[in-house]
Amino acid sequence: MNALTEFRNAECKPADKVDTFHVGDTVRVHFRIVEGEKERIQVYEGVVISRKGGNGPNAKFTVRRVAFNEGVERVFPLHSPRVERVEVVQEGKVRRSKLYYLRERSGKAARVRRRERSAKQLEEAAAARKVARAEKRAKKSAKGKKGEAKAEAKVEAPAEAPAEETAE
């Protein structure tokens, strides 16, 4: 492998961190936005109309939504550190790899058929969500414990000089 390929592969997210979704799925993309010194997460919900680049380092996907009777499309890099996560809201059943024809359609004609899943598949998906939630809670509690330890350290530290009161 040459240096360029190694660099590109180093920039990719690990395979277990990349969310699984397909063209036609309705997704919520949690995208980190930096405004000045503040940072927040913006959620963008819509239908995935294309995926390009497979799972490689340059992979990207396009999400389309209709806001105020105006179609809005946004392209997200799959391996970007700013893409926090991609949450599948509804799985779509489509027979094309690119859904550009949705651009000309509006209203009910722009809907994507829903993929029906068996009971076993639903149980597996529910179990996966349950595990993900448990991991998230564990991560939050670990962060909380660190914050508590810092707070305790501040409380235990002796006050060096008490504030003097002045009478007026």
Please explain how this structure is put together.
By secondary structure, this protein is α+β, with helices and mostly antiparallel strands. The chain has 2 domains: 3-115, SH3 type barrels (Roll); 117-153. Helices cover 28% and strands 29% of the residues. The protein is built from 2 helices and 5 strands; from the N terminus they run αβββββα. A 5-stranded antiparallel beta sheet has the order 4-3-2-1-5, with no helix packed on it. The longest helix has 38 residues, at 119-156. The radius of gyration is 23 Å and the shape is globular.
Spans with pLDDT under 50 lasting ≥5 residues? Answer: none
Shape: globular
CATH class annotation of the largest domain? Mainly Beta
Share of helix among residues? 25-40%
Report the major sheet.
Answer: 5 strands, antiparallel
H/E order of the elements?
HEEEEEH
Compute the gyration radius: what is it? 23 Å
How many domains comprise the coordinates? 2
